[in-house]
Specification:
CATH superfamily of the domain at 2-202 in chain A: CV3147-like domain
CATH topology of the domain at 2-202 in chain A: CV3147-like fold
Largest sheet of chain A: 7 strands, antiparallel
Protein name (chains A, B): DUF917 domain-containing protein
Organism (chains A, B): Sphingosinicella soli
Pfam families (chains A, B): S-Me-THD_C, S-Me-THD_N
Helix content of chain A: 25-40%
Domain S-Me-THD N-terminal (chains A, B): 6-162
CATH class of the domain at 2-202 in chain A: Alpha Beta
Structural class of chain A: alpha+beta
Radius of gyration of chain A: 19 Å
Largest interface: A-B, 22 and 22 residues
Order of helices and strands of chain A: EHHEEHHEHEEHEEHEEHEHHEEEEEEEH
Oligomer: homodimer
Domain S-Me-THD-like C-terminal (chains A, B): 165-358
CATH architecture of the domain at 2-202 in chain A: 3-Layer(aba) Sandwich
């Protein structure tokens, strides 16, 4: 598909839904993408099956605290410089760009890069949602290395990291980004087309656009956006098990910024009284419990949305008194394997529960 | 000249003298150099005039807290990996290696690298002594950029930094080295032969060797090593203004590790009583005051030495009760220009005094 200027808002809304509360508010990314597309034209989303096995695919992302990017604005050329550094090191040019995560602002920034360079974007990512850490991608679940990894800040400083393992890459990149003021852009996990055919979460860019479009059309035609959203998701290959976990009013938000993460809980009282649903988050929503019983748990997606407009609300936007619905959605099967759960399962976030698929809860 | 295995100890002692209390204890560097030379043979020191103008010269150094290198030992191949990263970025091979600073362990590590690679070492450096920060080199005084700069740790992690200015390069490198455990090796300030002919401090490797040799021969022939050292220095082109600033016993040492630096003061009571000389340091000795009056100040060199053997004592080796002499030595003229004093003068270390040459104090 071709993403046109007028599609950007739908794409951003779908990306916010897939962010599961995290991934950063897509607002800045949307402005950047609209500006880039106004200047450089539409961007093509290419199916991974149409990519050559020996193509060089480079995931791009914003790295750091999502709360910072809205105050310390990117200049727009960071990702290009990061990509150049990677290309110099690898001795070859990228064939196409892809998002590392489809949730939040990180769905949009790789499209900005692709637009500026006139490159296509591969229609897949490494999370099928958003996660807070660099190594929480299907790429590393399948044994690919995060490095060589390039980080560029808005002043044009570029740091290229080659690390012996992804834990070291994460630590070095995290320190670098702190020295850059807690927000920078990275290109990492360079892979071949053949690699991404195995480990990519497929079709997620088109999915984000379709989710955003479904919600908009339902609003415009005065239908219930939630029932249209759920019936759209039920027809998808990966996100078919979905339901409304709560419908009510926010009666408590606890949130603190700790170790560079937004950590906390939100409590929702069911309309009509009684049942309390509590959602616990670390940047992303991790687990939803109703009266103490688990209703959905990471890597399945939990998204809090405005109960009238179905606009997704990121964890930093949660407020006392908001009327919301909480949607739980099955994660793609590639994130639910035993190998994947070692990297993105509940224990990786310090939770005491094991993963249970949403359809069994 | 050719540095042979049996010359290493003299070379290391002279480097410790030029370290002016800092630059790291050369002990680990000496062991590494002896091992490298036993395996790979002697290393040639080449006069800068014998280097082609278009040669690629790469300064190498240990970066971080000198106190850490003695606990977290290098594996010996770090500098090679850092150099490789730089060469890949620049698209050409280094012609020769040089020290960024001739003081302390950093005089020896570039010779280890050269020995392992069979490359010559240029007989000059960027400080003519030791300084605590990356940009405190004649290279930056003459407008050369610290980056591209490569940092490698003992695990083999490599970080290549290209920064818009040297302050950013220093900050990014400092954060990187902290993430690597506060000690790593760097290659930086890649320059041409023509550049180094203008900005290098000349003949400092031979100088370090001659200083160490002079002290050893004086000891062996039961002469006073201090009078031989001073008369040797008086005959050199750059270090000719020198004197004994204090001769006594250490009665107080205050030292703390702050922001990755060893910061503190040492007090020496003159033999025969009365006069107290206080030396203030930040890794290197910065200023010596006798009864409150400045006797020598950075960039001139202040070195505390054992009063019997004339073995230089680094700031981390200072202890209560040690009997010492403190030697003050003029810095090379290239460090005393108004431009240089903006980079390595007293104000750069937070001191309230302006620079006064030792010969006027």
């Amino acid at each position: 598909m071709k993403l046109e200027l007028e599609d950007v808002e739908d794409f951003a809304r779908g990306a916010a839904f897939l962010g599961a509360g995290g991934g950063g508010d897509p607002y800045i990314g949307r402005l950047m993408l609209e500006q880039a597309m106004a200047q450089f034209g539409p961007v093509t989303f290419v199916d991974i099956e149409d990519i050559d096995d020996d193509a060089l695919l480079v995931p791009a992302a914003m790295f750091g605290a999502p709360t910072v990017i809205v105050e310390k604005l990117p200049n727009g050329s960071e990702a290009e410089k990061a990509l150049q550094a990677l290309e110099t090191f690898l001795g070859r040019k990228a064939t196409a760009i892809m998002p590392a995560e489809i949730g939040g602002v990180n769905a949009l920034l790789p499209v900005v890069l692709a637009s500026r360079l006139g490159l296509p974007v591969v229609d897949c990512d490494g999370m099928g949602r958003a996660f807070p850490e660099l190594q929480m991608v299907t790429f590393s679940i399948f044994g690919h290395s995060a490095s060589p990894l390039a980080v560029t800040d808005e002043a044009g400083n570029t740091v290229l990291i080659t690390a012996r393992n992804d834990a070291d890459a994460e630590r070095l990149a995290r320190h670098t980004v702190l020295a850059m003021g807690a927000s920078a852009q990275i290109c990492c996990y360079p892979m071949s087309g053949a690699d991404v055919k195995v480990c990519g979460v497929r079709g997620t860019l088109t999915l984000a656009f379709e989710i955003g479009r479904t919600i908009r059309i339902a609003r415009e035609s005065h239908k219930d956006p939630f029932s249209d959203l759920l019936s759209y998701l039920e027809r998808t290959e990966y996100y078919g098990k979905c339901k409304i976990l709560a419908d009510g009013r926010i009666i408590d938000v606890r949130r603190e910024t700790r170790m560079g993460f937004a950590i906390g809980t939100v409590k929702i009282e069911q309309t009509g009284g009684g049942r309390i649903t509590e959602v616990q988050f670390q940047n992303e929503n991790l687990v939803a419990r109703s009266d103490g019983q688990v209703k959905a748990i990471v890597p399945d997606l939990i998204t809090v949305m405005d109960r009238e407009t179905a606009e997704p609300i990121t964890t930093e936007g949660l407020k006392f008194g908001q009327r919301v619905k909480v949607i739980g959605t099955s994660a793609p099967p590639i994130l639910r394997t035993p190998e994947a759960l070692k990297v993105v399962g509940p224990r990786c976030f310090g939770l005491d529960e094991d993963f249970s698929p949403i359809e069994t809860l």
